[in-house]
Amino acid sequence: MTTLDKQPLPETQPTLEVRGYRLRLPGTARPVLAGVDLTVGAAETVALVGESGSGKSLTSRSALGLLPPGAVTEGALRVAGDDVLTMTPAQLRRLRTHTAAMVFQDPRAAVNPMRRLGDFLTESLRFGPAGGRSAQEAEQRAVEMLDAVGLPASVLGRYPGQVSGGMLQRVMIAAALMGDPALILADEPTTALDVSSQAEVVALLDDLQQRFGTGLLFVTHDLGLAAAISDRVYVMYAGRIVETGQAEALFERPRHPYSAALLAATPRLDAPGGRLAAIEGRPPSLREELTGCPFAPRCPIATFECTQQEPALLPVAGEPGRLAACHHSDRTGEVLAHG
């Protein structure tokens, strides 16, 4: 087996398993994350979709134990079978260098502009918590990972300012692969890139995920990107999972009004008057207690029941693996028509 091959985890053990995860921050009237359930299997790509402020990034960062100051958590959050919420600082360091890795939104914010990219790539292997590799071994691994993302070894000698944004994001992906992780967390990895670079990065992540058998959580607000890369999708609103299912089925027929509204707001060339559909209203403030369905104030099909009783995330009849938290999941077609 070469260093580029990877043995996936047993199918019975998810690379990421989140169960009843709640996160509360000081000064908020309600939990920022309220009972999140989510899994990513070995060699599976899962998209986490929602507007800014929905809790997507907090969920992904929690998988690395990157919690805001004063955060209080409940529930379980396991990576490769180990609960991150109970890890010691030493265990967290090993998690972040060998078991899981993150690709952030802005690659230039993740690197020191005064250091060569080769130093950035090899640092985790040379000075890792499990004992460092030699400089030669670390550099060889870096060259292999750069080749995997389509970059030449000469990139090792360059500074961040000497490469394009698309190339730098490829370096970030190579860095994420350095420790041979079971899980990659991609937090809006294409936001800072132009359209052509976005397409290249998405295709690269998809290729590498299949090649290495790594679990991938792809965080995005763009449903088009989610549809292009994911096997399954979780839709998040106000810190809650409101719908989940196989990507193709969810985009073909959403079962939650929020999912349908996001789809209706997707840019289309045939949109009447060239105008984008918008979701009326605003997401709920963290300073407000929530009563009923969090989306009810913005939902065009909400009823009195929606304002009084929060719907549970329940299976959708006749659709295996499909869950929706909506009192009127059979009426979401009306939201698409409304949009």
Shape: globular
- The share of residues in extended strands comes to 15-25%
Relevant CATH superfamily of the largest domain = P-loop containing nucleotide triphosphate hydrolases
- Provide the low-confidence segments as ranges: 1-10
Reading the helices and strands in chain order gives: EEEHEEHEHHHEHEHEEHHHEEH
Count of strand segments: 12
Q: Kindly state the percentage of residues in helix.
A: 25-40%
Provide the gyration radius in Å: 21 Å
Biggest sheet record: 8 strands, mixed
Give a description of the structure.
This protein folds into 2 domains: 16-252, P-loop containing nucleotide triphosphate hydrolases (Rossmann fold, 3-Layer(aba) Sandwich), CATH 3.40.50.300; 256-339, no CATH class. Helix content is 31%, strand content 19%. It has helices at 56-62, 89-99, 117-126, 135-148, 165-177, 195-212, 223-229, 247-252, 257-264, 304-308, 332-338; strands at 16-24, 33-40, 45-49, 72-79, 82-83, 100-103, 183-187, 215-220, 232-237, 240-246, 314-315, 323-324. The protein has an 8-stranded mixed beta sheet with strand order 6-7-8-3-9-10-12-11, with helices on both faces. Helix 9 (257-264) packs parallel to helix 11 (332-338). The chain is globular, with a radius of gyration of 21 Å. 42% of the residues are buried.
Features:
339 residues, alpha/beta, 2 domains, eight-stranded mixed sheet, four-stranded antiparallel sheet
Per-chain topology:
Blueprint: E1 16-24, E2 33-40, E3 45-49, H1 56-62, E4 72-79, E5 82-83, H2 89-99, E6 100-103, H3 117-126, H4 135-148, H5 165-177, E7 183-187, H6 195-212, E8 215-220, H7 223-229, E9 232-237, E10 240-246, H8 247-252, H9 257-264, H10 304-308, E11 314-315, E12 323-324, H11 332-338
Parallel strand pairs: 3-8, 3-9, 6-7, 7-8
Antiparallel strand pairs: 1-2, 1-4, 4-5, 9-10, 10-12, 11-12
